[in-house]
Design goal:
The structure holds 2 protein chains of 2 kinds.
Chain A (H helix, E strand, L loop, with lengths): L13 H12 L21 H11 L7 H9 L5 H8 L7 H16 L2 E11 L5 E2 L17 H13 L4 E6 L8 H14 L2 E5 L5 H9 L4 E7 L3 H7 E3 L5 H5 L1 H7 L4 E6 L6 H18 L4 E5 L19 H14 L4 E4 L5 H7 L6 E3 L9 H5 L21 H10 L3 E3 L7
Parallel strand pairs in A: 1-3, 1-10, 1-11, 3-4, 4-5, 5-7, 7-8, 8-9, 9-10
Antiparallel strand pairs in A: 2-6
Chain B lengths: L5 E3 L2 E3 L3 E3 L6 H9 L5 E5 H4 L16 E5 L6 H13 L5 E4 L12 H13 L3 E6 L3 H10 L5 E2 L13 H10 L5 E3 L5 H10 L3 E4 L1 H4 L4 H21 L22
Parallel strand pairs in B: 3-4, 3-10, 4-5, 6-7, 7-8, 9-10
Antiparallel strand pairs in B: 1-2
Helix pairs in contact in B: 1-9, 3-4, 4-5, 7-9
The chains are: A alpha/beta, B alpha/beta.
Chain lengths: ~425, ~260
Amino acid sequence: MENRFFVDSEHLSPEALEKKHRLETDPSFRKNHMEYLPGMERIQSDVCEKVMAHMRAYDSSKYTARDVRMALEHPNCSLEDFKALLSPAAEPFLEQMARRARNETGKHFGNTVYMFTPLYIANYCENYCVYCGFNCYNHIRRMKLTPEQMEREMKVIADSGMEEILILTGESRTQSDLNYIGEACKLARTHFRMVGLEIYPVNTEDYRYLHECGADYVTVFQETYDPDKYETLHLSGHKRVWPYRFDAQERALRGGMRGVAFSALLGLSDFRKDALASALHVYFLQRKYPRAEMSLSCPRLRPIINNDRINPQDVHERQLCQILCAYRIFLPYVGITVSSRESAAFRNGIVKIAATKVSAGVSTGIGDHESKYGGKEPTGEQGDEQFEIADNRSLERMCGDISGEGLQPVLNDYLYV
Amino acid sequence: MEKDKLIIGGRAFTSRFILGSGKYSLNLIEAAVKDAGAEIVTLAVRRANTGEQENILDFIPKGVTLLPNTSGARDAGEAVRIARLARALGCGDFVKIEIMRDSKYLLPDNSETVKATEILAKEGFTVLPYMYPDLNVARDLVNAGAAAVMPLGAPIGSNRGLVTKEFIGILIEEIDLPVIVDAGIGRPSQACEAMEMGAAAVMANTALATAGNLPAMASAFRLAIEAGRKAYLAGVGRELVRGASSSDPLTGFLRD
């Protein structure tokens, strides 16, 4: 059964409800998702075209066990090999894929696992993305941290020993404007050795400004690379513009960022096609910007506040593992991040095979690190969470568990130059 | 043999094994020093620049020379800044230049490396540049003030051995500085081969880090490097190609 995303809040006015229903039911009421909005920069790039041509032509049911065996035998994984490894025909070969992936991970990363924590500084949002807890029609406690509150949260996180932070916001260009995010980056640089950003896509010059403020890594999830499906899930707001989002990483690199991260949200659409497109997005951009550092994530849909039935559909742990092994074999040099959307058992297992980075001490809410990990009583002054996490281990426990698996937790491998 | 020392930047070393920095762990450093006899240990400044309680600097045994590297640098300017930071952190004056603008194969950028070498040598650093084995660039590095050159055998971490053997051979022949083979050495036999050719030293990391038994592999490297060095100093005898040493001379028919 498909996910049922639409939930009406009793707190919405009749006018808001009417607009919401119209967006949900009447495609002609929605803006053209392929058309740029005023102020959105358009860059010349052939990356999107290349990725989409492969994605459109990909029929995962055409691959056979023979293709998979050949792919596993080749010393270098070709594009066709990768497509075979992502196909259903590869499912019986999961153990062999895992062994090959582990070997590749060891060659490029040794036994290291990098640690980071996300810090949500605001959850205001102007988009209506039907699966997201922050969507503008979802009735949640909204909040944005003041500089003083940010400072407090960052201190709690830094005191735990964490050296890398990922700053996140909801996608509100008014509530969390560029200046607000820039100030957060400046503050973060005083507490952490590495600052990443996961915010709404911006123009090249804006990325340059944020880079100057101290951010060096930009994560943008495309959610789904299928524009038609995307259109039915992102019904209004800036995020609705699919191509502007696609080019975000390239703009970030042109703006001077050192690295970029990619992902589809698995469970929204055909996950094999989305996994293919995510990896090819990395592959083609890497060819164009060989000095950039790149990483992939692999989030699956999770339940949100007011809709606990949302689930990742046909992407079970086996499929997720298959995708991650295929990523590793095809792109042995890229980082792979596995977030706290996945269980402790899955994360303990996957760091031994393919993942090179995990989060710890996670909250997807606003301003609650102090109560969650600092041992303080909640004050009631917190913003609600984007989604439910499945692994709430603290940094200390995570480091202990990682070491227990014979791996080496690493807090920093980074130098601003 | 007793007096056969490796001289870099005016300092003498007995060991010709240098531990690389790619996959670092405390066990690895211990095995490299104890079992492989390493006297020089590379350190990625970007990993040392940490508040971690287990700071790498604390685990470098006394008497071991630190060789900080500039990994993470994408051009000469960045490499120079990292080298200065290393000096400020108390890592000494040795520095290994690594400049890569390719995140996939991690191949060195030779022209930026020459620029960084020149700047840092002038500032009094003992500069060991990691390079792609190109004779002209090696000569430029000599002129820029390098203390050694470090050509790659194969891409970093690939364990593929002396893929660039012919070109390293040319450097050994033509360059008066120590030629240290860096990157790609996956087995003791490959390290031995490099030493036998006349390399001054060998750097390895992944080959040890990914071995089943770390101390045993470290010790195997030590023996292989010593064997190769001994063979080089002894002067390797002629190579016989099969079928080419017939006792009947081809020119036996000549009368006068």
